[in-house]
Design brief:
It contains 2 helices and 2 strands, in the order H-E-E-H. It is an alpha+beta fold and 92 residues long. It has one domain. The chain has a two-stranded antiparallel ribbon. Helix 1 packs parallel to helix 2.
Length: 92
Amino acid sequence: MFLECIRGDITEAKILAAANSFLPLGLKDLGYEYDDCRSLISHVNGRIAPDTTKFPSGISGVTTQVHILCLKLSIYSDAGTNTCSGYLGSLN
């Protein structure tokens, strides 16, 4: 599922609500993915830090819940200084 269109307002709750809607709507087999806006705007200890406010279970917790539904989860980053939504890229 591509949530980039909501520009940075992605949260664990929104991803899980969308994932849980796939099965009753018959969308499971279409191969949607999730990406971007999962990290904080700044580094912690030289590393991109997860946003624990938006993702209280962490990415691993969200991944586990999405995988229980037999859906895919994709993590997006950027080789440059910023992602498309303005979050820190891997170059930093």
